[in-house]
Design brief:
Layout: H1 4-11, H2 15-23, E1 31-35, E2 39-43, H3 46-50, H4 54-67, H5 71-95, H6 101-119, H7 121-141, E3 146-152, E4 156-160, H8 163-171, H9 176-181, E5 190-195, E6 201-208, E7 211-218, H10 219-222, E8 234-236, H11 255-260, H12 263-275
Helix pairs in contact: 1-2, 6-7, 6-12, 7-12
Length: 281
């Protein structure tokens, strides 16, 4: 792993230029290292640095800055990045002496993985598979820390519009799919259940003192490895409109979070977790 100083020395550029390469997305952060002497610092993969077309990228960054001077925004972003890194450092310091340190750190990365899966639909299936593997291992290694709840959701339905609703969709300039998504169909339309409890979730809650995390898996995913699901405490999944975008709670990753906790960093940490050691099911 290479530091900001290593990258600057290799290409004979200053530290700010290295940070610009990170900020504009040319140089991904592979890991954030916590060091008692130096605090938090970015670490970069040798392969990413080796493949970096530094001077071409810096020229592009310079052009962007000339065309769109956003000094105030950049200063604001930098402050937010520092604030987020400071919170991350405090979190690591606070969990340092907990026996559950590993589980809490995994939860931190899993929290961000979920947001990445919401942000990048083209990668979501692979990211949700990793989430499934992480939760499985996390649960079987820390069953005493994790409480489960069965959140019952509705069935998945197929809807066939009646002739009147088809005419209404045409008149509104909407496709049938969009008309159905808007829930503009009427009682005369045909609604058929095609998968029972398609939108049901299993909720995993982990709490250690003031540290709290909650994650959700679709029932059909969790049922592949979780036993006695029917015996879990039940709740009703309260949500608005349903769609097929993995039907999970969560939000997309923020622009600032993506700069500090890159997808590569989050993915690498969680992949390492699921691939180390064995555990009994």
């Amino acid at each position: 792993m290479l530091t900001v100083s290593d990258v600057a020395h290799r290409y004979q550029i200053n530290y700010q230029q290295v940070h610009d390469l990170v900020q504009y997305g040319y140089l991904p952060v592979a890991k954030i290292d916590r060091n008692y002497k130096h605090g938090m610092r970015y670490l970069f993969a040798e392969s990413d640095v080796e493949n970096l077309d530094v001077f071409s990228h810096l020229a592009e960054i310079h052009e962007l800055q000339l065309r769109k001077p956003d000094t105030a925004q950049r200063r604001s972003d930098f402050r937010q990045v520092l604030s987020l890194m400071d919170r991350y450092e405090r979190f690591l310091e606070e969990i340092q002496h907990y026996p559950e340190k590993e589980a809490l750190e995994v939860c931190f990365y899993l929290f961000h993985l979920n947001h990445y899966a919401k942000t990048y639909p083209q990668q979501s299936e692979a990211l949700y598979q990793l989430k499934d593997q992480v939760l499985k291992k996390l649960y079987f290694q820390n069953a005493d820390l994790i409480s489960l709840r069965y959140l019952q959701g509705p069935d998945k339905h197929n809807i066939w519009l009646c002739e009147d609703c088809k005419e209404s969709a045409h008149a509104a300039g909407l496709s049938y799919r969009k008309f159905i998504q808007n829930e503009d169909y009427c009682p005369k339309c045909t609604i058929m259940s095609v998968e029972k409890e398609y939108y049901s979730l299993i909720e995993f809650r982990l709490q250690v003192d003031e540290f709290r995390f909650a994650f959700h898996l679709p029932l059909r995913r969790a049922a592949k490895w979780l036993k006695n699901i029917d015996e879990l405490p039940h709740g009703i999944r309260k949500t608005g409109r349903y769609d097929d975008r993995m039907y999970l709670y969560g939000r997309p990753i923020s622009r600032i979070e993506e700069r500090v906790f890159t997808l590569k960093m989050v993915h690498t940490a969680l992949k390492a977790y699921v691939e180390t050691e064995t555990y009994d099911v």
